[in-house]
Amino acid sequence: xxxxxxxxxxxxxxxxxxxxxxxxxxxxxxxxxxxxxxxxxxxxxxxxxxxxxxxxxxxxxxxxxxxxxxxxxxxxxxxxxxxxxxxxxxxxxxxxxxxxxxxxxxxxxxxxxxxxxxxxxxxxxxxxxxxxxxxxxxxxxxxxxxxxxxxxxxxxxxxxxxx
Amino acid sequence: xxxxxxxxxxxxxxxxxxxxxxxxxxxxxxxxxxxxxxxxxxxxxxxxxxxxxxxxxxxxxxxxxxxxxxxxxxxxxxxxxxxxxxxxxxxxxxxxxxxxxxxxxxxxxxxxxxxxxxxxxxxxxxxxxxxxxxxxxxxxxxxxxxxxxxxxxxxxxxxxxxxxxxxxxxxxxxxxxxxxxxxxxxxxxxxxxxxxxxxxxxxxxxxxxxxxxxxxxxxxxxxxxxxxxxxxxxxxxxxxxxxxxxxxxxxxxxxxxxxxxxxxxxxxxxxxxxxxxxxxxxxxxxxxxxxxxxxxxxxxxxxxxxxxxxxxxxxxxxxxxxxxxxxxxxxxxxxxxxxxxxxxxxxxxxxxxxxxxxxxxxxxxxxxxxxxxxxxxxxxxxxxxxxxxxxxxxxxxxxxxxxxxxxxxxxxxxxxxxxxxxxxxxxxxxxxxxxxxxxxxxxxxxxxxxxxxxxxxxxxxxxxxxxxxxxxxxxxxxxxxxxxxxxxxxxxxxxxxxxxxxxxxxxxxxxxxxxxxxxxxxxxxxxxxxxxxxxxxxxxxxxxxxxxxxxxxxxxxxxxxxxxxxx
Lengths: 163, 567
Prior knowledge:
The structure holds 2 protein chains of 2 kinds.
Chain A: E1 3-8, H1 18-29, E2 30-31, E3 36-42, H2 49-52, E4 57-63, E5 73-77, H3 80-87, H4 93-105, E6 113-118, H5 131-150, E7 156-157
Parallel strand pairs in A: 1-3, 1-4, 4-6
Antiparallel strand pairs in A: 2-7, 5-6
Chain B: E1 3-8, E2 17-24, E3 27-35, H1 41-45, H2 53-57, H3 65-80, H4 86-112, H5 119-122, H6 127-137, H7 145-160, H8 181-209, H9 237-268, E4 282-283, E5 287-289, E6 297-299, E7 302-304, E8 313-314, H10 321-324, E9 327-330, E10 368-371, H11 380-389, H12 393-410, H13 422-452, E11 468-477, E12 480-489, E13 492-499, H14 501-505, H15 517-522, H16 534-541, H17 547-550, E14 563-566
Antiparallel strand pairs in B: 1-2, 1-14, 2-3, 4-7, 5-6, 7-8, 9-10, 11-12, 12-13
Helix pairs in contact in B: 4-8, 4-13, 6-7, 6-8, 7-8, 8-9, 9-12, 9-13, 11-13, 12-13
Subcellular location (chain B): Cell membrane
InterPro entries (chain B): Ni-dep_hyd_lsu (IPR001501), Ni-dep_hyd_lsu_Ni_BS (IPR018194), NiFe-Hase_large (IPR029014), NiFe/NiFeSe_hydrgnase_LSU (IPR050867)
Catalytic activity (chain B): H2 + A = AH2
C-alpha cells in the first residue's frame, strides 16, 4: 500500500499556499507510517509524474474555488474528482490534471484520488497565510490524518517538545 | 476589415499568456503578446536575507524551479565576489543540465508536438510501414513493428473511451496537419516513450538536488550537502553510478530519437522554415562554469545582431560588464507605473498600474526588456547560433548533422539560415539537448575525477559587508537567458529584479514602441482558419512560453481552458 499526500500551491501568494503549508504541518506534527509519502508539489506538474505513478491512493490538498465563503474546507472524492478538474476550481489544475491524464494514458493512474480543498481568503503577494486560513490549518491536518485512517494508515502525533 | 483573433490562454500547461492577432487576407498583419497576471514576487524579497532568496525565487515558477535557485545564488555571489568550490560548480552544472534536458524533452513531445502531430491520424498508421520508415532513420531499440502495433492498440482503446485526456486540446484534422498516418504513429509512439525517458532526467535532479520539484541542495557560496562517499545520506558512489546509467539512457534517446524526430518533422513541414522568423537579434549567456570564479565555461554565449554570425560578441564571465550594462526594462506598454524611461534592473520598479487592454497603450503585465535599447530573442535558437558563431565544435557538428538529415528526407539542401524560423527553434532546442547530454556526461566525469583527487569542498561561507553592494546572476536556462539582479544594503535585500526568458520573448512594445519577439515572429504567419488558429499556436509554442514565470501564477475565476474569440 502506497499513499501520497500532495500539497500544491504557491507559497508566495498567501492563502494560495495552503496545500503546501498543510503538508508542512502534517510532517512536523505527525509520524507517518511506512507507505505514506508527503510531497510539497508547489506548482509543478510533469516533475511529479514519477512520484504519483501507480500509487494506491492520492490525496491532494489545494486552494480551490468552490463558490463557498473563504475558509470553507471541501472534500471531493470519487466520481466528483474528474468534474473538479474539468470546471477548473483550482489555479493548478491545468498542470495537475495533465499529470493525471498522462498517467491514465500510461496505465499508471492512482487507485483513487481525494481532494481536500480550502477556499482562500486572499491571494495577495506574501508568504504568510491570512489569520483566518492559518487558524484552519489544524482542521485541514486533522482531515488528512482522518483520510489516512480510512485507508488503514495510522499517523501518530509527535509530542510537543517542552522547552 | 480583417479579423481580430484573441487566444487566451495559449499554453498547454501553464496559462496566463494572451495573444491577439489582426488577420488580413489570410495572414497576420499585427500582433500583441500580453501577460495576463501580475508578478509581484520581487516585493516579497525586500528586506530579506540574501541567503534565503534562492529558496523563495524557486517558487516563482512551477515548471522551472531550479533555474531561479541558480540565478539567485549567482546574483548574490556576484555581489560578494564570492568564489564557488569546483565540486559545487559541477554538482550545480549537473542539476541544471539534467533539468534542461527534462524541459526540452517534455516541451517537444508533450507540450508542442501535438501542434504538428495528429493523434487521430496515427490510428490509421500501418505498424509495418512505420517500422520500415523508423528503421531507415534511426537504430533506436524502441522502433519495432511490435512496439508500433502495441501503441496503436493502446491508443485506439484510449480514443475509443471518448476520453482524450491529455490530447483533448488538439487540432485534429486541421488543414495545416500534414504528416502521414505512419509518421504520426511514429511520433505518438515516441511521445509515450518520452514520458518514461523524461523521468530519468528528473531523477538526476532529485538525487543531486536532494528533492524535486524544489531542490534543497543549494546555498550562496556552493551547495548545502557535503560530499562523503561512505555516507548513505549524501552523495555516495552508488548514487553517482546510478546517475551515470540515467545519463547514458538519456543520451541514447536524445540522439537517436529526439534529434531524428525533429529533423523528420522539420523535413515534412519544410514551409515552416520560412515562417516565424521575427527578431534576429539573439542574446544568450555562457554557462556551465568550469572554474571557481565563473570566467571559463563549457558552453559559450553572447550577442548576435541581425542574425549575422560574423558579428557575434561573446559574453566572457559572470562579471562581464557587456551583459551587466546592456540590460534595461521598459514599462511604457506594461501595467506598471512608469514615466522614468527604460530602467536598468538595479533601479527597476514593479509598481502595478492596471489600465485596460489598450492596443496602442498598456496591454501586458510583462515588462519589455532590451539589450542596448533593442529587443532580443532568447532561447535555444539564440544559444545554438552563439555556439556556432563561437565555433564551438560539438554545436557545429550537431547542427550540420541535423540539417543534413532534414536535407536527406526533404531531398534538398538546407542552410543554417533555415533555423531562423518556427521549426528552426524546435531544431535548435533538440541540438541544444544533444549538446547538454554530452555536457552532462563530461560534468559527471569532472565531478568524479575531482573527488578522486581528494577535494571534497562544497561551500565557501558568504560574509556580507556593511554598506551597499549589487550583483547580477545569469543562467542560460532552457527557455533562454535568465538573470536575477540584487541590491543588498547591510546584509539585507533592498532591490530585486528577475528578468526571465519569457519576459524577453513575450515582451510587449518597448520604450521606442518596437514590437517584441513573439509579436514580430507572428507577422505574416498564414492563418487557414481564424476559428482554429493552429499556425499562431505553432509559432508561439516554438518559443516554449512560460508565463507562470514572467507573470503571476494565479488564475481568473472560472475561466475556460482555452478561449478563442473571433471579433
